[in-house]
Write a structure and sequence with these properties.
globular, single chain, 418 residues, Growth Hormone, Chain: A
């Protein structure tokens, strides 16, 4: 039944969520621009980004255990509706002329709180709606739309800001959230089956961490992803300085690099959605890791006179991004026990989010000491090293076979079938 009818159930939800994501991206752009005009402070902008990370870092694993206990469709409905209500409340404050900077900080925290529940619930539901042999293609499609958003959102949001006040932009976010919720009200989403009685919340919380710790392949995967995020996020944040200080260029050239990355991401996502990757999904990720490593290393070594080479490198990095990331999501959706996926995806998001502030905290001093390009060199070398070493780690190569049955007596019942 899943093989025949899965598209009818899945794509209405998927389309609705894409509308919701576009609306949220436009609203976030508008709020950042308002903060920029209101304060002109880099500290305020950095603080706004930091406070948006806190709910996931602090509450992520706790939210994951709740997602695995609750009906995931209802979790998504409540989370989307909550985020929409937060945007509506902020719109009312702007209409009343009462909006302050601290309101934006609070809104970012509340929206991130809703996101801490929404994304893991959605990711954990996809594996129960999409056949396993299509998961990589769906991941590629998601990466394609992410690239489209990165290109379309800034100019579209800027255009809308020329036509509408901030409350009008926020109402767009409310409307697109409504489009995301409506399909969830009518489309059935399977729920993981639980055998026996329901254990206590804190026992399930502990089981989530033990599940990741005892599954060596998954643990190594998360450890590598966390390290790479700590290295690559600073490189992305330092891109404006690379353009201005190393290449001696301006805002137009920075826009060219960002657009090149977006177009590359669209191309990479389309390639992955059509190709589907190697039979072993992890090999596809290793291939993307090696390719992205070469792109970052090239950016770190490229001479100042070869700016067009940097544009080409960004297109290449964009292509390799979905090749690297898409299969990793599909691996987890296919191999992790359905009743554990809320906790696992929440742990992933927490580690990835938590690594960013750590990398950003040391990015400036290291770049001041060794130069802007050092982060691109470090990121590229790390990607190449991990991509090569990964082929020689049996636990990683065999990650799609699931956790070993003998890893823990208590966890044996949580191993995925087959």
């Amino acid at each position: 039944m899943l093989e025949r009818n899965w598209k009818v159930r899945f794509f209405p939800i998927w389309v609705g969520q894409q509308f919701s994501l576009f609306g949220s991206a436009i609203a976030q752009f508008a709020l950042v621009w308002w903060l920029t005009q209101k304060t002109g402070s880099a500290t305020v902008l950095a603080t706004a980004s930091l406070v948006a990370m806190l709910p996931q870092i602090v509450l992520g694993p706790f939210a994951g255990a709740l997602i695995d206990r609750w009906n995931r469709r209802r979790v998504m409905i409540v989370a989307d509706s909550f985020i929409a209500l937060v945007s509506l409340g902020l719109a009312l404050l702007f209409w009343a002329g009462k909006a302050e900077v601290w309101h934006i900080f609070l809104v970012k925290i509340l929206r991130a709180l809703g996101g801490a529940f929404h994304w893991p619930a959605l990711a954990a539901s996809i594996s129960l709606m999409v056949p396993k042999d299509h998961l990589t293609r769906i991941a590629g499609l998601n990466q394609t739309l992410q690239g489209v958003r990165s290109i379309v959102t800034p100019p579209l949001a800027a255009f809308l800001l020329s036509l509408l006040p901030i409350p009008g932009i926020l109402m767009i976010d409310v409307f697109t959230a409504f489009l995301g919720v409506v399909p969830l009200l009518f489309v059935f989403i399977p729920q993981p089956k639980m055998e026996g009685g329901r254990p206590s919340y804190f026992r399930e919380l502990r089981e989530g961490f033990r599940y990741v710790w005892n599954w060596r392949g998954l643990f190594y995967l998360l450890l590598g992803a966390t390290l790479l995020n700590a290295l690559l996020h600073p490189a992305s944040s330092l891109l404006p300085l690379l353009v201005s200080k190393h290449f001696g260029k301006g805002a137009l050239e920075l826009g060219m690099l960002e657009a090149a990355l977006g177009f590359g991401t669209i191309a990479g996502g389309l390639i992955l959605s059509v190709w589907g990757g190697f039979k072993r999904r992890i090999y596809t990720s290793f291939f993307g890791m090696l390719g992205m490593g070469m792109g970052f290393l090239f950016l770190g070594l490229i001479p100042a006179w070869l700016f067009l080479g940097a544009v080409g490198a960004h297109v290449f990095i964009g292509i390799m991004g979905p090749i690297l990331n898409g299969p990793l999501v599909a691996i987890i959706q296919a191999a992790v026990a359905p009743e554990m996926q809320g906790r696992v995806f929440s742990i992933i998001e927490t580690l990835a989010t938590g690594a960013s502030p750590l990398g950003l905290a040391i990015a400036g001093p290291v770049a001041d000491l060794f130069g802007i390009q050092i982060w691109f060199i470090l990121g590229g070398m790390s990607l190449l090293l991990m991509g090569v070493v990964g082929f020689f780690i049996p636990a990683l190569v065999r990650i799609e076979e699931g956790p070993k049955k003998e890893s823990s007596r208590d966890l044996s019942s949580l191993s995925p079938p087959g």
